[in-house]
Amino acid sequence: MVVLLATVVGVATTFSLGRWQLSRAAEKQALFAAVQQREQLPALDGATLARPLDEAAAAELLHRSVTLRGEWLADHTIFLDNRPMLRATGFYVFTPLRLAGTQAVVLVQRGWAPRHIAERTALPPVQTPAGEVQISGRMAAHPPRLYALGEEQGGPIRQNLDLDAFRAETGLPLANLMVLQTGAPSEGLRRDWPEPTTGVDKHYGYAFQWFGLCALIALLFCGFKLSDLSTAPAAPDAKHGDQPLGLTVHTMPSLGDAVAQDARRTRAGRWQMLLLALVCAAPVIASYFSYYVVRPEGRRNYGELIDPQRPIPAAAATDLSGRPFDLTSLKGQWLLLSVAGGACDEACQSNLYLQRQLRESLGRDKDRLDWVWLVSDDARIPDTLRPALGQATVVRVPADALAQWLQPAAGAQLPDHLYVVDPMGHWMMRFPPHLDKATASKAKTDLLRLMRASASWDEAGR
C-alpha cells in the first residue's frame, strides 16, 4: 500500500511539474508576441515622455520604438562596469537627455564601450556631442542588477544604477523609463544589443524531463508488480485445512520444478537489474534525445548549411556593359545571391525584391551585405527593371560555371533559391526554394544571426 501511494504521489507530482513548465512556455510566448506587437507600433516622441507616467503607464510603453530630440547632460554620465558585449567586458554608458522644449529628462543607455585592459578606473574615450541631438531607440526597463560587495559608491564608474537614487542624487526630473539607443556604432560606442527572445526552449526541455520521469515511475511500479506476481509462492490447498504437526517425511520437490522456479527468479532478477539500469541511464538518454532529436528551436537554421563550403570560382564573368568582371572581387562582404536569366520572369523579380528587402531589414548591418544577381544567359535585362537595381551588383556568369559552384536542392533549380556567401568567398548557406514574403522573416533571422556572429571580425566595406 505504501509503494502504491508513493507511486501515485510521484506520478501526480512529476506530471504536474511537466504541465507547469508547458504553461510557463505558453506565458513567455504570449509575452514575446506582445513585445513584437509593440515593436510594430508607431514610434513615440518626446511629448509622450514629457508627461508624468506612473508605473502602469510606463509598463505599457516598454519595447516601443522612440525618436527623441534634446540635449545631453554630459556631467551626469554614468559608466556601469562589468557589462558584456560580443564576448568582451566593458561599460554600459548612460547619459541623461533633456528633451527639447521641455524640462523633462530621460536617462538614455547610449551604448557599450570597452574597458581599459590595464587600468580599471580609466574611463573609455566616449564623445558626447554638444547642442541639440536626435536619437532613435526603444523603451527599456532598468538594467539588470549585478552582485556588489558593500554599499554602492558614487562617481562615474558604478556596478549598479538605481533610478530613484540617481534621481535624488542629481535632482533631475527623470522619467520612470529609460531609452535604449539603437543604430550604428558612433561616438566610441557599440550598440549590438541582443534581440528579445522567447526563452521557451529550456521550459520544453524541463517538461520533457518531468514527463519522462513520470512515465519511468509508472513503468517501474508496473514492472516490479509483475515481477512479484511471477515469483509469488503458490497458495496452499484450502480443502485440507490445518493439519497437526507430524513427523512425516515428505518427498523432495522434483528437479524440474526446482529448475523452473530458479529460472523464474533469474528472469525476475534480470528485469529488476534492467529497470535499475534504465533509471540510472534515463537522464543521459533524455538529454541526448532532447539535444540531437528534439533540437531546441534556438539552434535551428531556416537555411541549409553547405558542407563542404565552395569558394567563388575564377569564372569568366562580365558586367552589364560587357566589361570583364572578376568574381573573386566580391570577397570581403557577405553576399545574398540570386540566379536567373536576363529576361527575369515573375519568380526572378520576386527574388530580387526579397533580396533588397532582406538587406534593408538588417538595419545598421545592411552595409555589411551586398545583394547580387548572377545572370545566367545573354538575354537583355528589361529597361523597366534597371532603376530598381541601383544598389545591386549584377554580373553575367556562364550557366555551366554557376552549375559547378552553386547547387539547388533535390527537385529544384538554381533560380528557385537565394544563396549566402561569407566574406571569405565561400558559399555556405542555401535558403529553401520559392522564398516568399511569409517565409522571408525566417531568412531574416538567419541573416541577423550571421551578422551578430561575425560582428567581431567583419566590418562594412571591402
User: How do the SSEs run, as a string of H and E?
Assistant: HHHEEEEEEHEHHEEEEHEEHEEH
Reported for the largest beta sheet, the result is:
6 strands, mixed
Cα end-to-end separation: 76 Å
* Share of helix, binned: 25-40%
Give the C-level CATH assignment of the domain at 304-453. Answer: Alpha Beta
Mean pLDDT: 83
**Computed structural class:** alpha+beta
Strand order of the largest sheet: 8-15-14-11-12-13
Percent of residues in beta strands? 15-25%
The low-confidence parts are: none
Radius of gyration: 34 Å
* CATH-defined architecture of the domain at 304-453: 3-Layer(aba) Sandwich
* CATH domain fold name of the domain at 304-453: Glutaredoxin
CATH homology superfamily of the domain at 304-453: Glutaredoxin
Which geometry do the CA atoms define? flat
**Total E-strand runs:** 15
The DSSP helix count reads 9
What this model shows, in words?
The protein has 462 residues and is α+β, with helices and mostly antiparallel strands. The protein is flat. 36% of the residues lie in helices and 21% in strands. The protein has 9 helices and 15 strands. It has helices at 2-39, 46-50, 55-60, 163-170, 201-231, 255-294, 346-361, 399-405, 440-453, and strands at 65-72, 78-85, 88-99, 105-114, 132-140, 157-158, 174-181, 304-311, 316-318, 324-326, 334-340, 369-375, 393-396, 418-421, 426-430. The N and C termini lie far apart (76 Å). The strands form 3 sheets. The protein has a 6-stranded mixed sheet with strand order 8-15-14-11-12-13, with helices on one face. Among the domains are: 64-145 and 153-181; 304-453, Glutaredoxin (3-Layer(aba) Sandwich).
